[in-house]
Design a protein that fits this description.
single chain, alpha/beta, 7 strands, binds zinc ion
């Protein structure tokens, strides 16, 4: 996977997906890795069987064999979307964009942080997610 220092934003569909998975997993948390295509986050690798406690969700990410993703995403069971200490340790390990979604997982209930836990702007982009490759 290539370096993703220049992440332009996240595809609207991908953000909708994240919020939807957060809602359907609630009150459990979900965690996943973000994948970037052409500078836009278009994919989420959802980790199966994410446990109900925050530290477990984040620990699962730590244990991913290939943690060279563009970043991570996980949900919090409450409205607080500030990164915990465990979150910060994870953020510093991989990627430059880390999304936390908080209850009730609407469009303003998420935030993006960089590798050091500072809030960063992550524009939501209307891009076509095409399955057919135009070569
Ligand atoms: Zn967290």
């Amino acid at each position: 996977m290539k370096k993703n220092s220049e992440v332009k934003g996240i595809a609207r569909e991908t953000l909708d997906f994240i919020l939807e998975v957060s809602r359907s997993t609630y009150p459990k948390e979900f965690a996943g890795l973000l994948e970037v295509k052409d500078g836009v986050i278009t994919d989420v690798l959802v980790l199966p069987g994410t446990e109900s406690s925050e530290s477990n969700a984040v620990l699962k990410l730590f244990m991913m064999p290939n943690i060279s993703a563009a970043g991570s995403v996980h949900s919090h069971p409450g409205p607080v979307i500030r990164p915990s200490k465990a979150d910060l340790r994870l953020f510093s390990k991989t990627g430059t964009r880390h999304i936390i979604a908080g209850y009730p997982y609407r469009h303003n209930n998420w935030k993006c942080y960089d590798g050091s836990g500072r809030p960063v702007e992550l524009p939501v982009l209307d891009v076509e997610l095409e399955d057919e490759n135009v070569l």
